[in-house]
Design a protein that fits this description.
The chain is mostly helical. About 55% of the residues lie in helices and about 0% in strands.
């Protein structure tokens, strides 16, 4: 989705006062979002945080804005990998580990019971 004229105008406005003082994409993204009204922000299509991990995503709209920023300023925004959401992250429901521990204990009890029966028979 190409950037609208409003988006290009606001990004140019931010570029005028930020210049080269910010290179971190996530800090820069906040500055760009502040330049938009609350109803215009959604139209940009920028990514949000993951609801569970609170880590960040970089989507196509973000990449497009980063490319436009680089075109305007000549500075490529830096994306800090430690702030990104891990795509291999797995949601685990509440108490998931407890079921695993109970299964392990049950197997241990059964193994102890069977070893007791075999040693007592002789």
């Amino acid at each position: 989705m190409p950037l609208s004229e409003l988006a290009k105008d606001r990004i140019a406005y931010v570029a005028a006062y930020v210049q080269d003082s910010i290179t971190d994409w996530f800090v820069l993204k906040i500055e760009i979002l502040r330049a938009f009204g609350r109803f215009d922000r959604k139209k940009l299509g920028m990514s949000r945080r993951h609801p569970s991990t609170e880590k960040l995503f970089v989507n196509e709209a973000d990449r497009e804005i980063m490319e436009y920023w680089e075109l305007l300023t000549g500075i490529k925004p830096f994306v800090d990998e430690t702030k990104l959401h891990d795509p291999n992250w797995v949601y685990r429901p509440s108490g998931w580990r407890l079921a695993e521990i109970n299964e392990k204990r049950k197997a241990e009890r059964e193994a102890a019971k069977s070893s007791k029966n075999h040693s007592g028979a002789g």
